[in-house]
Structure formats: structure tokens, C-alpha cells
Backbone:
């Protein structure tokens, strides 16, 4: 057994990591990967991640729900934004949602060579960990970061995954070791730990504290959102 | 007062950071930045960092000492390699050394837009921290990493600097926060902490344990190696 876990701390470092033959877990905790896990878990038929509001608009009038948000406000004419609270069963069950997300979509595009792309969040932490263990492949945890830079919340989640699956793996890169140690330091109070992050200050200005608290809940979802074509569907 | 510290965890992320107007500290703990700090502190007139053995060879017969090492062995025809033990006063005092280093030289090249590039290592930790505080500029700590990926030892040093200078700064990126927390976790036994790193396994194969121990010594040097033209000289 010589399975490997690597953690890539920013999508701009992707060209230096092997994708082929691996499962890549795309992480964008605040809030794309959390909202997508929650929406798929609540019975959304599929979620299509796109990079721009214009790209999202190109799906108008095709029976899709359109989700676009800029600066914390739902863009005019769209059904809803990026808040996980928009992805309840009542709103998304049986629907296909087109979602704009800059950091998350860029990370997904960078990982196209992977055997399988899946999305991870604290909401489906244990579920995705059990699924990863069962796949018998090397794993790359890909943090979307913030504007191509490192961020704490994506790294903490990567560390949580490393901590939960490492017994089934034998090789770990330095970033996996660092992510796990940061997670172990923060795990008793993730919200408190993140209060000191620069990103958290920025999020505070967006007035989405409820979303942040929700995105840090663990194990309320079982879905494994995986990319099939251009769509994320439950591949569990 | 609104001075900022950022930490860039890999040279490939440099395009996403501001360089102009800032001091950039290039970090390559095992072993380029450590050997350079030690050599300059021991009275080397200058050290010229180059990327390749061929580039190093182009300085032959000009009165320089040539340092090149590949796979832990001094390249044939060169005066010495990258071990800090080659940079004693006896060997380098009054001399100009041309040194090949892949990760470190790449990082220096990436930071060319900075107001001033300096080299940091545990050997000159307190000295460079005091110097940074006195400059009254924003600081970017640039980890050379390993083959463009994150490594633990450069990040731990960045964290040590953040820890020592943060009272004079008011803004910190997420990577600075993470680096400091990792350093605080590791500081009581840096060598022990690094034993679990993948890089450490690789270094063990190179049989340079004495060099590693030496590179983790704190505050045995006062030099501030700064880039002036293509040369590193003491700018203290």
C-alpha cells in the first residue's frame, strides 16, 4: 500500500502537481463548495459551476435556476446567490442550478486532467473521507484560496480530511502535514480560529456571518458532488 | 501605522503579490539562504547566486570561488558545494563566491521588482527582524519551497519572522497567520518537527544531517545579505 495525499494550497500551483490517475477534491469553503454539497444533498438534479455572471446568463430561459452574487448581493434578475441557505430542498429539489463562483470554478478548470473531481466541505466531511478511502487512488486536495492566494478556511478543511483519512495512506507532502497541524490547532473552535484571518475580516464586511457558521457545520450532508461532463451530480 | 506582512508560500505565486515598494525576504533554509548568510557574515566580499552549473562555470578563471553541488556531491572542478561548512571565514573571507542554487535563485529572479531583496535564515533571524522593523516598509516573506511546491522549513522560518516583528505591523495575510502558528507549534524542537516532513526524508538520503542541524541554529550571524545588482553583499 503506497497511496499518497497531496495538498495544493492555491490553484496557481496546479501545474506542478500530477492530476492524471488521481481524485482531486476541490475546496472552496466560503461558500461555493459548501453550498454545492448542501444543494446536491437536498436533491438538486445537478449544479453547473461557471466563472462569470455573463456565462451564467447564457443559461437563461432553459429551465435552470440561476445563482449569481457579487459583493454579497444577489445580481438583479437572478434567482438567488451563493448563500447555502438558498440551497434548501424546498428551493432546489429536482432542479438544475447554474452557479457563478470565481475561485471555485477556476480550481475546477485547473483540475480537468484528474480521474475524478469531487467537491468537499465540512458539511460532507466524513462522507467524502469514507468515499476517498474506498476509491483506492491517490488524492489531491485542491484549495481554491482567495484571489489565487492561500486562505485559512480551505486549508483547515484540507487538514481535516488528511486527519480523517491518513491511516489509509502512506505518503504525505509537506503541505498535507502543515494543513493537518493547523486543523488540529483550530478544530475545537474553527470559527474562533478563523476570526483572526484576513479573509474573515473581508467576509464580515459582506455581512454573511450566518453563512459562515453554517459552512463550518460538520457532517450534515452525505452527498458526494462529482463532476460529470460540465455538471456536478451526486456520484455516491 | 498600517504596515503589512505577507507570506508567499511558493515562487510560482509571486505574480499575485505586490513587489514594488516592498522589502522581499527570500528564504531557502536548506541550504542556500543559510549558506549565504553564513558566508557574508564570515566576510565574503559578495556572493553571486546563479541558477545552473553552466552559468556558474561562465565565471571560471575570473578570480571567483565557484560553488556547485548536485545530488549532494560537489561538482567536479568546483571549489565547493552548498554546505554552510564551506562558507567559513577561512574559506570565503575577502572572496567573491558564485553559487548555484535552483530554488533560491528562481525565487530571487521572481522578486526583481522589489525595492530591496534580502536573504533570511535562522542563522541571522533576530538580526534581519530588527533590520526589517527599522526599514518602515511593507514586507513580503518569499519561501523558495521545493520544486515550486510548499515546504515546511521555509514556512517555519517565515513564521519565526512574523512572530518576532508582528508588533510593528498591523496587517497580516492568512499565510502569515498560518506560518506563525506552525512555527509556534514547532519552535521547541524544530529538528524534531521537520523529521516528519517529506523534504526531510529526501534530505536524509543526501546524508547532510550536520548541515541541517547547522541551518537550524539561531542568531549566530548578524549579516543582512542584500541584492545589489547581481550580487549579494552585506547591506547592514
Residues:
Amino acid at each position: 500500500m503506497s497511496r499518497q495525499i497531496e495538498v495544493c494550497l492555491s490553484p496557481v500551483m496546479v501545474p506542478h502537481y500530477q492530476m492524471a490517475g488521481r481524485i482531486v477534491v476541490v475546496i472552496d469553503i466560503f461558500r461555493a463548495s459548501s453550498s454545492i454539497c448542501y444543494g446536491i444533498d437536498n436533491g438538486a438534479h445537478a449544479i453547473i459551476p461557471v466563472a462569470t455572471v455573463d456565462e451564467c446568463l447564457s443559461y437563461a430561459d432553459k429551465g435552470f435556476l440561476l445563482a449569481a452574487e457579487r459583493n454579497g448581493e444577489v445580481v438583479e434578475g437572478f434567482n438567488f446567490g451563493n448563500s447555502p441557505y438558498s440551497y434548501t430542498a424546498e428551493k432546489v429539489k429536482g432542479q438544475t442550478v447554474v452557479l457563478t463562483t470565481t475561485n471555485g470554478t477556476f480550481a475546477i478548470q485547473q483540475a480537468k486532467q484528474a480521474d475524478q473531481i469531487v467537491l468537499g466541505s465540512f458539511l460532507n466531511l466524513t462522507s467524502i473521507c469514507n468515499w476517498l478511502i474506498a476509491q483506492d487512488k491517490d488524492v489531491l486536495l485542491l484549495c481554491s484560496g482567495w484571489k489565487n492566494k492561500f486562505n485559512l478556511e480551505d486549508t483547515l478543511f484540507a487538514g481535516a480530511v488528511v486527519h480523517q483519512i491518513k491511516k489509509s495512506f502512506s505518503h504525505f507532502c509537506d503541505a498535507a502535514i502543515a494543513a493537518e497541524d493547523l486543523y488540529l490547532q483550530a478544530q475545537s473552535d474553527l470559527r474562533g480560529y478563523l476570526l483572526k484571518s484576513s479573509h474573515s475580516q473581508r467576509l464580515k464586511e459582506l455581512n454573511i456571518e450566518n453563512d459562515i457558521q453554517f459552512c463550518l457545520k460538520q457532517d450534515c450532508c452525505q452527498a458526494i458532488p462529482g463532476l460529470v461532463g460540465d455538471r456536478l451530480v451526486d456520484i455516491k
User: Anything to note?
Assistant: The first strand of chain B starts at residue 4 and ends at 8.
